Every structure is written in structure tokens, then in C-alpha cells.
UniProtKB/TrEMBL annotation:
Matches recorded under Pfam families: Sel1
InterPro entries assigned: Mitotic_Regulator, Sel1-like, TPR-like_helical_dom_sf
Listed SUPFAM superfamilies: HCP-like (SSF81901)
The protein's name: 12650_t:CDS:1
């Protein structure tokens, strides 16, 4: 059985709360600051961000709307900010946008757009995007089923520290999905997953 890499990450909200407490901010304070920073680029003449950090703010604001952090949960607002981040060429934003089209979340379901943005995210090196692309290749949803490619993308994501990818690598080796059966390797990845300190989705917190 392989773990679906999509879905709500309940640990993400907890990590954000810890970050706010650690830095003596309320969630509302952080949300309002994000709104100011994320909308600043929209006031530029070309509507383009002036720095990599401004690009990141758009995606992070999408996350706050996604989970209702410091504000009311708003799927449409979340989707719109993820879309803006993706158009800023932010790989994490691309992955989130692909997820929105796949579920759907804040928009209409569109598997072709989901694959398009997930692929872009993965090819730009986003580990979560790589994990989601691997899952797409495994399932063959709006993309040609390819277990070898699925395994390779899981491997990339697992080596980058994505928890679900590590679990899926163990499953691949256990049943021989896209690779040869190897119970020793399966056990290694299960052990690696069990020691996982945190999901890669919160790494952006350290960049703020």
C-alpha cells in the first residue's frame, strides 16, 4: 500500500504556531504582515516581485488562508495566492497549485492543470512536487502510468527528506514497484521514515 502524498498536513499548523510563539508574534500579526508584504509587489508598475522573499510571501499567504491561520479559512483566496506564487515561478507555489487543481481546492478540478504544475514544480527541484509527480506516475491519472519514473521521483523526494516519499520508497522495495524487490532496502526506508523529524513543507518557516 502506498501513501497518497496529497491532503491536509495537520502538523504544518502546529509548526506555524510554534514559530509564532518562538518569535513572540500572534498568528494575526504574522498574517497581517504577510498581507502587507505579499501585496507590495502588486503595487509595482509591472506587478512583479522585487525579491525572492516577496515571491515566497505570496505562497505563504496562500498557506495561511488554506489553514485559517490568523484569519478565516478561505479556499478561493488560498488558491489565488498559490496561483500568483506559481506565476512568480515559485516551485512550492506550483506544487500547491497543482494540488488545488487535483483535489479540487478553491477552484474547479482539472487534472491536466494539476499535472502541468506538479511537473513544473518537480523539475524545478521541489521535493513535495517530486513526491506528487511520483504518485501521479504510479496511478496513471491524466499521465502515462510509469512505475520506473514513479520510483525515481519518489527516490529524489525521499532523499530530500519528504516523509511520504520515504514511506513509499519502502513500499516500492517491498513489492518491487518500479525497481527490484529488496526487503533490506525497504526496512532501511521504513526506519528512516520512523525517525523523520519534520515534513519538508515547513522548511519555508526558516526562511522568514
Amino acid at each position: 500500500m502506498v501513501v497518497d502524498p496529497g491532503g491536509r498536513d495537520e502538523h504544518l499548523v502546529e509548526e506555524i504556531k510554534k514559530w509564532c510563539i518562538r518569535n513572540n508574534y500572534t498568528q494575526t500579526d504574522v498574517f497581517e504582515a504577510l498581507v502587507d508584504q505579499a501585496t507590495a509587489s502588486l503595487n509595482n508598475d509591472d506587478h512583479q516581485p522585487r525579491s525572492q522573499q516577496q515571491k515566497k510571501f505570496a505562497c505563504v499567504l496562500g498557506i495561511f488562508y488554506h489553514y485559517g491561520i490568523g484569519t478565516q479559512l478561505n479556499r478561493k483566496e488560498s488558491f489565488q495566492w498559490y496561483a500568483l506564487a506559481a506565476n512568480y515561478n515559485d516551485p512550492f507555489g506550483m506544487n500547491q497549485l497543482g494540488w488545488c487543481y487535483s483535489i479540487p481546492f478553491g477552484t474547479n478540478q482539472d487534472h491536466e492543470k494539476a499535472i502541468y504544475w506538479t511537473k513544473k514544480s518537480a523539475h524545478l527541484g521541489n521535493p513535495s512536487g517530486a513526491c506528487n509527480l511520483a504518485y501521479a506516475y504510479q496511478r496513471g491519472t491524466k499521465i502515462e502510468k510509469n512505475e520506473v519514473k514513479s520510483f525515481r521521483w519518489y527516490e529524489y523526494a525521499a532523499n530530500a527528506g519528504v516523509l511520504n516519499a520515504q514511506v513509499n520508497m519502502a513500499s516500492c522495495y517491498r513489492v518491487g514497484l518500479g525497481t527490484f524487490k529488496d526487503l533490506h532496502e525497504a526496512l532501511k526506508w521504513y526506519r528512516s521514515a520512523s525517525k523523520h523529524p519534520k515534513h519538508d513543507n515547513y522548511l519555508w518557516l526558516e526562511e522568514l
